[in-house]
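Could you help me review a protein record that somebody else here produced? My question to you is simply how this chain folds and whether the tokens agree. Thanks in advance; the entry in question is below:
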Amino acid sequence: MTYLLVSNDPVSLASAVRQYAQSYNANDVFWVRRAADKKEITVDVINQMIEQTALSPVADKKLFIIFEADLLNTSAQNKLLKTIEEADDQTTFLFLCQSLTNILPTVKSRAVVRYYQTEHNATLAKLRATNPDSQQIAENAKKLFTATNVDQALTLLPIFTKPENFTLALSELNQALGNSYLPVNQKLRLYHALAEITRRANANCNAVNNFDLLLLTLFQ
């Protein structure tokens, strides 16, 4: 799978990622950085990474960590598309960046976006502490991804569609999806659906219809 990890504290994020990498065999972890004499990550760096993706892992899985991913130039990002789209379940790509502004839509559409913003996390913590529906939102989010039919899932949606619950609902749904036991490919489609729901909400589309998209993806 491919993840775009966005943080306004790149040092702390890099430290957390290095700690996570310790769960892999050291020979199966690949660190991708821009060349010291370059201001961006160029296609030659990505070509070297792609060569490594063709190798079998020493253990059972491989991890590619791309630092300063928002410095990938357009050619490098285009070169990545086929590789990240066709990666098997034993290969994970972590793109670390401070902003998604320079990330191509074609790359974002193939990745799961996770935010580690200090301000964003503080806002969510405040919402959990002050929203009287916070516990029910979290419980319904967990139940949604274990629902066995559409009718059962529909009973869980109303609490998500309240305007004052929307931000917290999306956060809890993302977390519940990450902890679910759904197949990897289905999880990826659902992450994309959640990203599309966010985009539609920002465009002031109807919240109920937004979450219908999630159900269609879950039960298609």
In short: The longest helix spans residues 184-202. The mean pLDDT is 86. Strands lie at 2-6, 29-32, 62-66, 91-97, 112-115. The radius of gyration is 19 Å.
